[in-house]
Specification:
Elements (H helix, E strand, L loop, with lengths): L5 E5 L6 H10 L2 E6 L2 H11 L4 E5 L5 H15 L4 E4 L8 H12 L5 E8 L4 H5 L9 E8 L1 E3 L4 E3 L2 H13 L4 E4 L10
Parallel strand pairs: 1-2, 1-4, 2-3, 4-5, 5-6, 6-9
Antiparallel strand pairs: 7-8
Helix pairs in contact: 1-6, 3-4
This protein binds NADP nicotinamide-adenine-dinucleotide phosphate (NAP).
NADP nicotinamide-adenine-dinucleotide phosphate (NAP) binds next to strand 2.
Length: 187
């Protein structure tokens, strides 16, 4: 069981929607960010009575990202959990999330779960986070593929969400979903 009052989710409206639903059920206040209004509304219709708030945001806009983190903090209080599946097109988003929460929240511990998945670059998945605020625990969920010695396939949405839920609950720093080895056997 999570001991968690306030969670932020970035990249949680698509393949990760099932994990977002799990987070909403285990956290008092969850804010999910995304650009696509229809995806946000779909989640809102399902979970708003359980404490979900959705917010339009393009996380590649650093000023908007900072502003929305501050808004969530002012509305629901200190942040316990951030789950972030951020595309490589927004390299400043994770550093901005870390810095902005570090500015707002100096003492209370929080957990940052970074989901890493790429169909082509192992180095992007295996890269380890540095520059972590003192009161922040970083966990990484690395998305691999399914390989049975004969054939391989990418993870299903359900497997991705299950892996992220496992990563959130785990005490390990890294959770690998499926396998990353042998990398040349990926689909
Ligand atoms: N390892 C595996 O087995 C596996 C399987 C499938 C996919 N993948 C990889 O997973 C990655 C993600 O795929 P996808 O994009 O199709 O996933 P998706 O889950 O359909 O969409 C990405 C999520 O990120 C959000 N997002 C993206 N850009 C954003 C931005 N600038 N600002 C705010 N939110 C943003 C989207 O919200 P909006 O729609 O609102 O923008 C959505 O919630 C790809 O690299 C793919 O190769 C790996």
């Amino acid at each position: 069981m999570l001991n968690c009052n306030h969670a932020l989710v970035f990249g949680g409206t698509g393949m990760l929607a099932e994990a977002t639903g799990w987070i909403v059920k285990h956290v008092n206040h969850t804010v999910v960010f995304g650009r696509n209004r229809h995806r946000l509304e779909r989640l809102s219709n399902k979970y708003s009575e359980q404490g979900l708030k959705v917010q339009e945001l393009d996380y590649s806009n650093t000023e908007s990202l900072k502003h929305q983190i501050t808004n969530a903090y002012e509305e629901h209080g200190e942040i316990d959990l951030v789950v972030a599946w951020i595309h490589s097109t927004a390299p400043d988003a994770i550093p901005t999330i870390k810095r902005q929460i570090a500015t707002l929240q100096v003492h209370r511990q929080w957990t940052l779960v970074i989901v890493k998945g790429s169909s082509s670059h192992l180095t992007n998945i295996a890269f380890t986070e540095n520059d972590v605020p003192e009161n922040c625990i970083v966990k990484e969920v690395q998305l691999g593929f399914i390989y049975n010695e004969m054939t391989s396939r990418w993870l299903s949405h359900h497997e991705i969400s299950e892996g992220v839920i496992t990563g959130i609950q785990s005490n390990e720093r890294k959770t690998v979903v499926g396998t990353l080895e042998p990398w040349d056997k990926r689909p």
